[in-house]
TrEMBL record:
AB hydrolase-1 domain: residues covered: 7-217
Pfam families in UniProt: Abhydrolase_6 (PF12697)
InterPro entries: AB_hydrolase_1, AB_hydrolase_fold, Sec-Metab_Biosynth_Hydrolase
Domain of life: Bacteria
GO MF, one annotated term: hydrolase activity
The keyword Hydrolase appears for this protein: yes
Signal peptide: none
Protein name, entry field: Alpha/beta hydrolase
Keyword line: Hydrolase
Amino acid sequence: MAGKPSVVFAHGLWADGSCFSKLIPTLQAEGHEVFAAQHGLDSLESDVACVNFTLNHVPGPIVLVGHSYGGTLITKAGLHDRVGALVYIAALAPDEDETSQQQQAKFSPTPVFEHIEVADGRLWLKASGVGDFCGDLPEAEQKLVLATGAVPVADLFDQQVPGTAWKTKPSWYIVANQDRTVNPELERFAAKRMGARTYEVDSSHVPMLSHPEFVLDVIRDAAKSIGA
């Protein structure tokens, strides 16, 4: 295992660490120590704290990978001194003076938001919206995504904590061209603003599940850049 950067994943809404299940075994086999932070989407502060204690647990340097809202988390937690590279997958990447919602509001809303409901203070994805979230997966996989997804508190995107790691850490960004959850134009804007190495793939919001080899190649590139 010596000589390989570690890899830490941060998931987004309506997901958990299993959304990286097509990446983790390969990265482990290639000699990386890998962990997926299992944050509960209870608050931005607690989610960032979860990513940070996961970072504390693995040796550096670390490639920190965030999907969707996980991009907000790696933007905050990526200031950790063990993090050498950031990889954003169809992700938010708010600036210091932006919340996740403020960044989203600058772009046209996507179809998935026609299929959400608030119940028990949580923001639920309806079954009718799973196609807008991961429509390029087989039906059985779409059902699994819906069944295993953690459900966020309703005001999660309005919360704020300090930190903008992409201003000081090298970044990679995967744009999902067919994304119906995060606007692809937001993704392109975020990638350009951070000066990221940018890759585009014809994918739904979940390229790590629909195009895992593509995503693995980007993570490998980030890992090679920081060495050990």
